[in-house]
Amino acid sequence: MKSFLLIGLGRFGRHIAMQLNEQGHQIMAVDENEDRVNDVLDIVTNAQIGDSTNAEFLKALGVRNFDVCIVAISGDFQSSLETTSLLKELGAQLVVSRAERDVQAKFLLRNGADEILYPEKQLAKWAAVRYGSSHLVDYVELDANNAIMEVPALESWAGQTVGDIDIRKKYGINLLGIKRNGTIDVNISSDTVLPADGHLLVLGEYRSIKRCFHGFCERIAAGRRGAGGGPVRLVSLPESGWLHGQIPQSAEKAPGGQPAGPRCVNRLWR
Fold first, then answer.
1. Which CATH architecture has domain 3-117?
2. What pLDDT score does 109 carry?
3. Does 141 have pLDDT greater than 60?
């Protein structure tokens, strides 16, 4: 459990307070607006109405005693910048400040912020990667090149062991866990048998993961054409069904009423 000083209780700050409360952390919440303070009283440990740009007010809070100080002020960059600077001057251990523009992030980092929260930019990047990939369910960025991604299990791997497929050697990615029915099994070894359903949690470079799971469907399509089958169409699953690992009723059959082909990242229909 950590202690947090949370300054700024707008929509963003309130959501932070809710999440920290669910995790069992201690929260001191601060805002100039009395109504905003009253709205979070049931989810924070303590709360104060006050001006965070006032050095005496911040000093009275004992900022040195908090593990993390979060400046979540929105719509008033001057106050955010002054608060950030004062917190560092008063000996705050870790100052995390919100930015709404790139230039704000630079100024905050130069004036006391140890880390930056840039929710619009960070969420935009997540959304672009998540919805720009037809084979991706969720992901956690580790750095500019590597991430942990959640991808649908591949039917062609079903029944085979991790050692049989040799995922790390062939594709340059690591299998961290298997997620089925909301439960994640992280006890992965070379003898682990891969399922036909559920999701796989994999670690690796973006391009390696994309090459492995996106290229899989392309290889199946090419194989079907080479075997004399009719033309193959790659049809993305509807978002609502794919996220829950289920095929909506409307996607159960291909056009013309024929059974759908193998289920992997996309539907393959002959």
1. 3-Layer(aba) Sandwich (3.40)
2. 95
3. yes
